[in-house]
Amino acid sequence: MLHVIKYYFFILFLIFLTSCNSRNSFSSKNKPAPIIKYGMAVDSFKVLEGSILPGQTLGEIFYLHHIDHPQIDKIVRHSKGIFNFRTARAGKKYTILCSRDSLETAQCLIYEESHVNYIVFDLRDSINVYRGEKEIKIKVRQASGFIKTSLWDALISSKMSPALVMELSSIYAWTIDFFRIQKGDFFRVIYEEKFVEDEFIGIGQVIAVEFNHSKENFYAFYFKNNKNFGDYFDEKGGTLRKAFLRAPLNFSRISSRYSKRRRHPVTGRIKAHLGTDYAAPTGTPILSTANGTVTEARYKRNNGNYVKVRHNSTYTTQYLHMSKIKSGIRPGVYVKQGEVIGYVGSTGLATGPHVCYRFWKNGVQVDPYKQKLPPSDPVAESDRSNYESLKDSLMNVLISIPLKSSDITKNDTINSNNIII
Known about the structure:
Blueprint: H1 2-30, E1 36-37, E2 40-41, E3 46-51, H2 58-64, H3 69-78, E4 93-98, E5 106-112, E6 117-122, E7 128-133, E8 137-146, H4 151-157, H5 163-171, E9 186-196, E10 199-213, E11 216-223, E12 231-233, E13 253-256, E14 259-263, E15 270-273, E16 276-279, E17 285-287, E18 292-300, E19 304-310, E20 315-325, E21 334-335, E22 340-344, E23 354-361, E24 364-365, H6 384-400
Antiparallel strand pairs: 1-2, 3-4, 4-5, 5-6, 6-7, 8-9, 9-10, 10-11, 11-12, 13-16, 14-15, 16-23, 17-22, 18-19, 18-21, 19-20, 20-22, 20-23, 23-24
């Protein structure tokens, strides 16, 4: 009888333990997951968000949240080499993590430098200032468009980012004149879109394009033939890029060409003008027309702010009258074709905003529009097999992207590859 009683007590004890474990398991399953922002759990703070007002400083924002001036001075000193307080700009977002008491003293301040980059000022135990990055999610998108009026309108009607116009015009800079595309042209494109916290922040890599212009197909496939960067090649492995861009600006007009005799607009004297002037609004980005190494980046009385780039033993280019030279551009820096090196201005001997583009061949200034410039290299033979495999797979995807039926007129005929003929 005693054994039976002990047995039942043992069973009841097991049931009790099981019941406790079940309740604990149930409560843990229903416990909400912590809210993570900027790499920190923010549940225990009062979270305040805002944007810097015109004329406002980060120091003022700290002070408004009960951080005194001696503490602010320490924060500024701890930020040296990580973040310059003077670079904080109106309109930029910030988040403050405050204590959950009546004072609501700032424990952390996060300044969003961009959609991706932010700076954390952690004041909890000791002052800790560091940089962080939000996760960028990449989505690959397939799209198509039919030109009725302009490429811009075709992208908008297909609900694509207008930034894609710039990407496509850059890819086809030496192949298609986008000021002359016409009704009936169309394109198919595979490209990346970048998102941060489900917000679209821009275009990523354009992976492949088919552009049909005047009933002729022009293909572009991105191939990374170098561990640092890749380039665009056609269906035969030829490069779409020539050694030099046509101009150092994306959109501009030539206001004065290379000439052996020109009346200078400032001095009025007749003298040689050994450059090509491109008029554009102040602040327009100036691009290096080819890969090369910066040899000069400074100010001179007549040139104003200027940059000089040596491309190889034969060619050198120079860009004058900049409003400012881009940060980080200095002698010895390697720049890629199309990289921004400065901004249009009117410094030096200039009457209005423009860039004077100068071009040297074998040490002599020449007219770039009269030169037979070499093409860039095609896909290397050592990479040919990998390129062909990539190109074939992307080509199959491209030609499978349908054109919207609303984009096709009754007079158009579609062939077996889904191409208008």
